[in-house]
Protein: Tryptophan--tRNA ligase, cytoplasmic
Organism: Heterostelium pallidum
Amino acid sequence: MSNNNLDNTAVVPTAVDETTTDPSDDQIVDPWTVSSKNGINYDKLIDQFGSTKIEPELIARFERVTGKKAHHFLKRGIFFSHRDLVEILDAYESGKPFYLYTGRGPSSGSLHFGHLVPFIFTKYLQDVFNVPLVIQMTNDEKFLWKDITLEESIQFTINNVKDIIALGFDIEKTFIFSNLDYVGTMYPNIVKIGKCITLNQIKGIFGFDDSNSCGKFAFPPVQAAPALPDSFPHIFSPSDPMTKSIRCLIPCAIDQDPYFRMTRDVAPRIGYLKPSLIHSKFFPALQGHNTKMSASDSNSAIYLSDTPKEVNEKITKHAFSGGRKTKEEHELYGANLEVDVSYEYLTYFLEDDELLKDIGDKYSSGKLLTSQVKNILIDIMIEINKRHQEARARVTDEITKTFMSVRKLNFAMPTIKK
Amino acid sequence: MSNNNLDNTAVVPTAVDETTTDPSDDQIVDPWTVSSKNGINYDKLIDQFGSTKIEPELIARFERVTGKKAHHFLKRGIFFSHRDLVEILDAYESGKPFYLYTGRGPSSGSLHFGHLVPFIFTKYLQDVFNVPLVIQMTNDEKFLWKDITLEESIQFTINNVKDIIALGFDIEKTFIFSNLDYVGTMYPNIVKIGKCITLNQIKGIFGFDDSNSCGKFAFPPVQAAPALPDSFPHIFSPSDPMTKSIRCLIPCAIDQDPYFRMTRDVAPRIGYLKPSLIHSKFFPALQGHNTKMSASDSNSAIYLSDTPKEVNEKITKHAFSGGRKTKEEHELYGANLEVDVSYEYLTYFLEDDELLKDIGDKYSSGKLLTSQVKNILIDIMIEINKRHQEARARVTDEITKTFMSVRKLNFAMPTIKK
């Protein structure tokens, strides 16, 4: 997986036709490029990708089937799109097994808050469904795409895995693997997938050309393979004829969808079910929707390793404000929540719906100033960071090793609901 | 590796310009295609590939340095071309370590005599140099290129490995591995190689196009990786800084050279020495130089599993004769040894130089008839087959498992010669 967010150095401004009449036409979203002039148009992305919008009815069914409250990421449209999520709810309802698969391309030593989004949601799904989870660390991909050594990508992997574990994944039900270590076990499925996809298709899906390395062309089947359950013979019995029909649900940022469109095309041709997907929006950079979080600009994102002082400074100085130019104007017209980064961050990290609504109402009507909203956000982010750093400090090398060891998982398949 | 001989179903007549004035121009040799109208012109191949002919001086030096008699495959020009073989002799002479690497694409259940050629010679080299040997079974390649299942390619692998072991490789010094099992350990080197080669280069070297599967484009680094010594951490200590500078010598049929031209290009760029190569000619089909041994025509080759009766029939009926049309003509003009398959087979399998010369002299002067030469060959081939089948019967599953297990090898690095 690439980073699910905008910190990829490969995210460069892409040549677009400046004469285009539809300004939303210039958005480009793939695993290596997320760019747009006017912010991503997510409805348009759903059209482009052919996925399905998550409507309130589906969320209601999710709550009915699971008996659990929908996560605020779902209710607030942060996870906004899906493919065959209904099949997963059907499977859960009828007691059929499935598992979760997500991943991360370890491109730097420390994660930022944007990186957390798919993992926070994945942990929620694991808690709700009580199913196994596999997390692929694509250090091979990062090595192939970036100017780093294998050794660096391995070091990033360990650091990132500790941050992921700190989110509270169940050690009994979660297998985290580094491609550089684990690819061998998936190799039979990798060649099966690789045999099915022509170079023409790879080029069409990912936009590679003949000047790219053959390593890059070899990679898509590696990210596809974990969506096939028998890529994990230690988790799902290879001798059980039912193993191949275990479903997979992939929570990820929508830029990863091309990999799984490809996977969904191939899976039925080699005897598997299509994996289901649930897509998140992109977590914005502090500077606003149209900017990118960049590993080379540490002020574009809040890192999990930032001190309270750094969190305070970054939000105070850099979080793009939807407030008005003067206090008088602001009190008259209120803030534009659509572009206000502090408010958007609150939609991610302030779980209390009523409080969020209250802040939104007051801010958009001018009763709250940007500085006040920023202070609310700063308190929340410092608290989350503090808790995260404490949790991460408890993640020992031993615990990390266990999460990453090839072992049986201890999970109950869902039972049939009344 | 592909089969080192002409039994590949991918060896199809290739479109060539019929108007070409130089009839030798139509020869095409790559890992999947060996075709020519007038027999392969090996001198021309050396020119095309940029390798070096093995001259008598080099053979003399080989004998001097090793203190061993040159194998008749060397003396008779069956191994006829090389790259940097001199570097290996230098290394041996100065007590520097190196290892041997060869391989086989297991495309059918039983091997024929042509398949044996690189292995017979490799065993000789192992005996002479007393160095470790790694044998790659490219069942992934066969699955990617042919209409077979993974399960079939795995079954072929085991059958072929037993035939290989039966040739007498030293269990203490030989590691035989199936790519489907072992690729994980080589994966760090595979991605390092893959990062260095563009698609343009792959297309130039192998002639793939965009309608080929991405699995095929992913394969060349997999065949290259065993030429890097740290692909075998159980054999060559990964913590020893000298490991990366251990040389590798690859005995193979010349159709495999494109893989290793690529490897030789990449190796120095990622910190390794270029592997050395020693190339064999193609073992001819019974029907003659311009025909191919085909898995779909069992009469085109003598298989190691053939009965004495089958060996007798195949040679009697199908071995292309350089003899004359009538007995009278034959006694007058003698046989054309250049095109006589029985005589050529004798150059492979009749070790006695004097006897071979005597047969050649008498046959080419008409004193021996084709039927008499065929009878000599039949006796030899039946004897070799018998011995091979007996040896193969002694190759138990346990022995096979040991050869294929990831383990330390027990070998002495060469010592400095006086």
Remarks:
- The first strand of chain A starts at residue 28 and ends at 30.
- Strands of chain A lie at 28-30, 33-35, 52-53, 79-83, 98-104, 133-137, 174-178, 247-253, 276-280.
- The domain at 298-393 of chain A is CATH 1.10.240.10 (Tyrosyl-Transfer RNA Synthetase).
